[in-house]
Design a protein that fits this description.
Layout (H helix, E strand, L loop, with lengths): L1 H11 L5 H21 L4 H20 L3 H21 L1 H12 L2 H6 L4 H19 L3 E5 L6 H4 L3 E6 L2 H7 L10 E5 L2 E7 L15 H12 L3 E5 L6 E5 L2 E6 L1 H12 L9
Parallel strand pairs: 1-3
Antiparallel strand pairs: 1-5, 2-4, 3-4, 5-6, 6-7
Helix pairs in contact: 2-5, 3-4, 7-9, 7-11
C-alpha cells in the first residue's frame, strides 16, 4: 500500500508541459478518427478479433501454456497479411475517411449543391410516377473517376430535364448509372461493382446491388428508382434507406451531402 501511495505521489508531482499536452491531444484525435472511421463497418469485428487473439496470447504466456502461446503467436504474425487481403475495401475506406477534414468538407459545400438536390428529387418523383428505373450516383469526398470512365462522357450541368431524359426507356444510356460530380453529370451508362452481400433480399435487382456496391467501396451516395415497385431507395455507407417519399428523400440527401453524415451516423 505504501508503494502505491508513493507512486501516486510521484505522478502528482510530474510536470506537464505544452508539448506533453499537444502530444496527448494528438493521440486522442488519432484514436477518435480511427474509431469514427471503423464505426458501423466490418472492421469493428476485425479489431475485436485481434484484441481477443492478443489477450489470449498474453494469457497463455502468463499461464505458461507453451503450445497455445506458440499457435497464437504464429496466428498474430500472419494476421496482418490476412487482414490486408480480406478487408482491402474497408482499409481503403478507413484511410480515405481519415484523410478527410472538416475544412475541406465545408469549403466544398456551396449553394449549387442544394439546387442539384432539388433537381434530383424532382426528377426521381417524375421517374417514379412513370415507373422508369434509374440509378444516380453522387460523388462526395472520394473521386469516382474510375467508374466515370466506364460510361459515356456527358459533362453537362445537372438539370431535371436531363436526368429524366437519360433514364427514359429506349434511350441508349437508361440502363447504366449516371455519376454526378459537383453540379454536373460527368457520365451516364456507367458500370458499377455489384454487392455480394448474401443477406440482401431477392426483391432487389441489379440496380440496388450496384448502389450498395459503389457505397461499400466509396463514400458516394446512390439514389435508386425501382421500375418494378416504383419505390425510391438511397444507398450510403453500405446501407439502404428504403421506401422514401419526396420529402424524406430530400431531407436525407441534405443530411448526407450538406451535413456530411456517413453510414456510421445512421
Amino acid at each position: 500500500m505504501s508503494a502505491l501511495f508513493a507512486a501516486l505521489r510521484e505522478l502528482t508531482h510530474l510536470e506537464v508541459g505544452t508539448r506533453d499536452l499537444v502530444d496527448i491531444i494528438l493521440v486522442v484525435v488519432v484514436f477518435y478518427l480511427l474509431l469514427t472511421a471503423v464505426k458501423g463497418t466490418r472492421a469493428v469485428s476485425m479489431l475485436l478479433g485481434m484484441f481477443i487473439l492478443g489477450g489470449g496470447y498474453l494469457a497463455a504466456q502468463a499461464l505458461d501454456l507453451i503450445t497455445l502461446a506458440t499457435v497464437l503467436r504464429e496466428m498474430l504474425f500472419y494476421l496482418p497479411f490476412v487482414i490486408i487481403v480480406l478487408f482491402q475495401h474497408e482499409i481503403r475506406r478507413i484511410l480515405a475517411a481519415i484523410g478527410r477534414t472538416p475544412l475541406l468538407r465545408w469549403t466544398s459545400v456551396l449553394s449549387p449543391r442544394q439546387v442539384v438536390i432539388n433537381d434530383i428529387v424532382l426528377a426521381c418523383e417524375t421517374l417514379v410516377s412513370h415507373r422508369y428505373g434509374a440509378l444516380i450516383v453522387i460523388e462526395r469526398d472520394e473521386g469516382l473517376r474510375t467508374f466515370v470512365e466506364t460510361g459515356i462522357p456527358i459533362d453537362a450541368r445537372l438539370t431535371y430535364d436531363l436526368l429524366v431524359n437519360l433514364f427514359t426507356p429506349g434511350t441508349p444510356l437508361h440502363d447504366g448509372a449516371a455519376v454526378v460530380q459537383g453540379n454536373r453529370i460527368a457520365a451516364a451508362g456507367c458500370f458499377l461493382p455489384l454487392s455480394v452481400r448474401a443477406d440482401l433480399s431477392t426483391t432487389y435487382g441489379s440496380r440496388h446491388r450496384a448502389a450498395l456496391g459503389i457505397t461499400e467501396e466509396t463514400d458516394a451516395v446512390a439514389v435508386v428508382v425501382s421500375e418494378e415497385r416504383g419505390a425510391l431507395t438511397v444507398a450510403e455507407g453500405g446501407h439502404l434507406h428504403e421506401d422514401l417519399d419526396r420529402r424524406s428523400l430530400r431531407n436525407l440527401l441534405l443530411e448526407l451531402l450538406l451535413l456530411g453524415r456517413t453510414g456510421g451516423d445512421a
